[in-house]
Amino acid sequence: MADQEIHNPAPRTLLRVAIGAGGSGLVLGLVIGSFSAAGIVDMTVAGLMLLAAWVIGAIAITASEPIWGLPRRLRIPVIIGTNLGLALLLGLIGLYQYYHLPVPEKRSARLQVAGVTPVKIPLTDRNFFNLQYDNKGPVQALNVATFIGAKLAARTLSEEETNSEMKKVWAKVDGFDAQGPNHSQLQPDGAAIITLPGIEVTDAQLEEIKQNRLLLYAFLAVRYEDESAEGKYYWTLQFCGYFTAAMTYWHNCAPYEVNKVEGRRFKR
Question: Euclidean distance between the first and final Cα of the chain, in Å?
Answer without folding.
Answer: 81
